[in-house]
Amino acid sequence: LEAARDLFGEHGYDGVTVRMIAARAEANMALVNRYFGSKAALFGEVLAGESVLREIIAGDPEGLPRRLAEHFVRQLDQSHVSTTSRMLDRSAGQPEVKRILLHYLEEVIVEPIVAQLDGPDARARAMLASTIIMGGGPVRRLLGLNDLRAADPDELTDRLTAMFTAALAPPPTT
Questions:
Q1: CA pair distance 33, 31, nearest whole angstrom
Q2: Which of 99, 144, 148, 150 has a CA 20 to 30 Å removed from the CA of 31?
């Protein structure tokens, strides 16, 4: 998985072959195919294994908006782009990768958030929160976020907590 992660981060999905992964891992290509089935499945495994979001989402449902906000703010402080981010940046336009990302979004973010929520429209609320989560990274990498980095981290965390709280709250009853 480490060899695949590094190669996908360096070259993107289309620029990597199973042969390259096997060579980097010093493994037999047939063995890689046997354990993972395909390059697409291996990409999905790498992506799912890299996610810190599982740990952030797990835990007390009441604290979820704050944990998501703190994660977002931590991402702003990172001076380097993570391997996962590079993988996504270099691979996102590929149709095969789109299917993998949809699966990742469902399995790693949306469904675990849905499991934390009570009330109606839990899936829609989880999707709204995931939009904030997933959208922040590309904007940060494309535009740079010097203005946000210059902001007070506590104030930024409070504002993002309010955003996530609103996104995850059940609809008002009328």
A1: 5
A2: 99
Asked if residue 113 lies in contact with residue 129, where contact means CB atoms within 8 angstroms, the answer is: yes
CA distance 152 to 158: 10
Say what the pTM is: 0.77
Per 3-state DSSP, the chain is made up of helix, strand and coil in percentages (nearest 5) of: 75, 0, 25
Q: What value, to the nearest 5°, has the Cα angle with vertex 127 and ends 140 and 86? A: 35
Residue 54 identity (one-letter amino acid) = R
Residue 119: what residue type? Answer: G
How many residues does this entry show for the chain? 174
* Residues ≥6 apart with Cβ < 8 Å to 85: 137, 141
- CB contact at 8 A, 108 and 54: yes
Alpha carbon 89 to chain centroid distance?
A: 12
CB 42 within 8 A of CB 4: yes
Look at residues 125, 135, 133 and name the one whose alpha carbon lies nearest to residue 171: 125
